[in-house]
Amino acid sequence: MDNCLLRIIITIFLYISCVSSFGKVVALSGSTYQERAESLIDQMINADLKQGGDIKYTSPFYFARILKNERKDDAVKNLLEMYDKVMKHPDEFYGSGSNMDFCAHATMHGYLLTKEVMPDTLRKTIRSFMSMGKYIRKNVTLNMSMMQECSGYLCAQEWPDFIDADGNDAVKLKETLKKHILQTIRPFITMNCPEADAFTYIGTNLQYLRMLAEFCDDEELRHCAENAYQHIIAQMLLPWNKGLYCANPPRSKGWANLQTGNRDSHVQIGQLAWLFYGGQNERFIEASVGNSDNFGCFNFWMSYQRDITPMPFLDSLNQQKQYPYSFEALRMEGKYRYSRYTYQSDNYGLSTQHIEAEPQYLKNFQYTYAFKETRNLHLVWQSEVSPNSVFSVCHDNPERPQRHQTRSNKLGYGENPYHRVFGRGKSAIGAYIVPKNYMDKPVFYRMYVPFTRKGILKRIIKKIGGYEWVICHTGTMMFAFTTPEEWTWEKRDGKFAIAGHDVLVLSDADCRRGAWILETTEITDEYRDENRNLSKELNSFAEALKDKARVELSDDYAESDKPIITYRNIDGDVLQLQYFSPETPYENYYRMNETNIQPNFTHISKSPYMEQTAGNHIVTFHLENGVQEVDLE
User: Fold this and answer.
1) What pLDDT shows up at residue 21?
2) Fewer C-beta neighbours within 10 Å, C or N terminus of the chain?
């Protein structure tokens, strides 16, 4: 069949699938950042909005219409109704959790962007609404805290006689909030944003940074915010792979939130990176918007055209990337560090992560929030048929990492602190030993491994080297997974069942220790069948595993507290992982070809395209026409 005709058929199939699964969809397009951003705003202007919507989710659509003078009267009417409803029910508003912070940001950002063209009635209403805010607060997450603090500062800037709900006047707000805002965002550049690569929240961080950079009158605050904004966008270049976002998120909201492939339309970071870097001619988005997360409500704040835009050479740098390449990245949170290694191939990305506490915080490290929402393994591939193009090895973990916790997290939501992962190139291995006294309740120890039925087109099981391997063909790449322990498939109504997936679990439901091996490959000439018969290509891959791959366990694997797993992959490289507990500092526990591997704690990013030393403001970009250093101090 002609390739062009085949692509048309696939596109029609995808459109029908999207419509049947999510409702009406539209395609965004554009060859530049500006064109892609305008495409999103055009969709927002024409989107179907639920009447009586929520400020957090629907107000950006109305502000977009006021900005563009499209359907303006209706937008003003609906905004007035939403704010009036909230101000008549203050108790509900204060009890809404994160809505207070999201609504404060959306309102102030929209106001500053459109105040010159909005009617006086709306300006007065917005001021009244913003006076309900409580802007000097503690004990909230990074993005929530910064949304309300940046909004409060700009209220004080805009209205010199402003007083918030706690009685703080404009002078106190500006003095108190400026100090804390600077203390928070300055380390974004030298330590990386703690929520960098967070599939749910990195866009939220970009929202308030751009708001400050565009509208703050204080030069120090404005300059710092713009530099942090540019830094985050630059760091997104390396995980972005022509429509795939491959990373280990510090914050992820469940299994579906890991689906950052080119056909996903429900994970924010994919569209966010697409806005900045492109990679596909089109990207689907829902045409109807309800009271729930949607791309428009967050990414509008990165799409309107004003003074602040991404550094102009970033797009061309992205275009010059050649595959495969690998890079290292680092996030530092003061108490602990996330060291990531990512391999980017033409049709997929494979990322692994090492989390370690600073020496003074090693005690009780397994009870910290480092593991609440993170994932230590992320494989994502190009797919023409399904957004379910992700694979990750999971371990049961608590909803809150506190002693005496008895409630399990949502599937795919977080990570078990006793799960060690080491990856290099196309391969990754893992090991775990969960003690019986973890959380004082023996419930958070089981491994579960989801295999998508839609994103995997063909799957076979082969016994190789004494182990049962699950060998998968996605249409664009292949991967194989095994564990030395005997395994089975989870029951459809079992604890770890995920819709649309077969989930591998150990046959011994009480097993607290184990290991696993993951091998990945492009469909090279060695495996490619001239008729593209998937079974033949899988069997060729299986033969390569049989002839070349070797798994070796240390003699004390079954009883030692530091067992060793060694894997020689199909390229002849040898990966070795010696397990160690989360309260033990790293000491040569990872080896590659008999060479000790030190997790990256020295570079925010290190790759052939850009690098930055931790603690340094200077980012070095390796462009085709030479090196460019950017000082983000």
Assistant:
1) 38
2) N
Judged against a pLDDT cut of 80, whether residue 265 lies above it is answered with no
Question: Using a CB cutoff of 8 Å and minimum separation of 24, what contacts does 119-126 make?
Answer: 119/76, 121/76, 121/80, 122/76, 122/79, 122/80, 125/79, 125/80, 125/83, 125/84, 126/83
Averaged pLDDT, 453-476: 97
Q: Note the pTM of the prediction, 2 decimals.
A: 0.94
Identify the DSSP state of 31.
Answer: S
Please give the Cα distance from 362 to 41 (Å, whole number): 47
Asked whether the predicted pLDDT for residue 293 surpasses 80, the reply is: no
pLDDT above 90 for 535: yes
Percent of the chain with pLDDT over 70: 96
User: Cα(39)–Cα(27) distance, rounded to whole angstroms?
Assistant: 9
Question: Predicted confidence band at 139 (pLDDT cuts at 50, 70, 90)?
Answer: low
Q: What is the CA radius of gyration of the chain?
A: 25
- The residue whose two tokens read 């305008």 is 38
Residues 6+ apart with CB under 8 A from 456: 472, 473, 474
Q: What is the torsion angle, in degrees rounded to the nearest 10, for the CA atoms of residue 436, residue 437, residue 442 and residue 444?
A: -90
Is 309 a residue whose pLDDT tops 90? Answer: yes
Give CA angle at 83 (79, 86), nearest 5°: 145
Cα 619 to the center of its chain, rounded Å: 22
Token pair 């699964």 is found at 21
Alpha helices in 498-590, H assignment, sequence order: 534-548
Tell me whether strands 288-289 and 48-49 are parallel, antiparallel or unpaired: parallel
How many distinct helices (H) and strands (E) make up the chain? 15, 30
Euclidean distance between CA atoms 339 and 119, whole angstroms: 50
pLDDT of 130 reads: 97
If we measure between CA atoms, which residue out of 381, 410, 372 comes closest to residue 521?
A: 381
Listing DSSP states for 189-223 in one string gives HHH--TTTT-TTTHHHHHHHHHHHHHH---HHHHH
* Strand (E) or helix (H) holding 43: helix 33-46
pLDDT digits (tens, 9 = 90+) for 611-631: 999 999 999 999 999 999 999
DSSP state of 410: P
Q: Rounded to an integer, what distance in angstroms lies between the CA atom of residue 13 and that of residue 413?
A: 30
Residue 601 structure tokens: 């704690």
Residue 22, pLDDT score: 42
Centre a 10 Å sphere on the Cβ of residue 610 and count the other Cβ atoms it contains. 22
pLDDT digit string (tens) for 585-611?
999 999 999 999 999 999 999 999 999
Backbone angles phi, psi at 402, to 5 degrees: -130, 150
Average pLDDT, integer, range 191-197: 95
What amino acid occupies position 613? Answer: T
Which amino acid is located at 14 in the chain? L
Chain centre to alpha carbon of residue 409:
18
State mean pLDDT over 333-341. Answer: 95
∠ CA 106-108-111, rounded to 5°: 100
Question: What single DSSP character describes residue 398?
Answer: B
> Is the model's pLDDT at 5 over the cut of 50?
no
- At residue 321, the pLDDT reads 97
Residue 197 Rama label (left phi>0; alpha psi -120 to 50; beta): left
Neighbours of 337 (CB within 10 A): 21
8 A C-beta contact, residue 550 and residue 465: yes
Strand partners, 623: 626
How far is Cα 486 from Cα 13, in angstroms, rounded to an integer?
A: 39
What value, to the nearest 5°, has the Cα angle with vertex 285 and ends 283 and 288? 165
Please state, in angstroms and rounded to a whole number, the distance separating the CA atoms of residues 514 and 374. Answer: 20
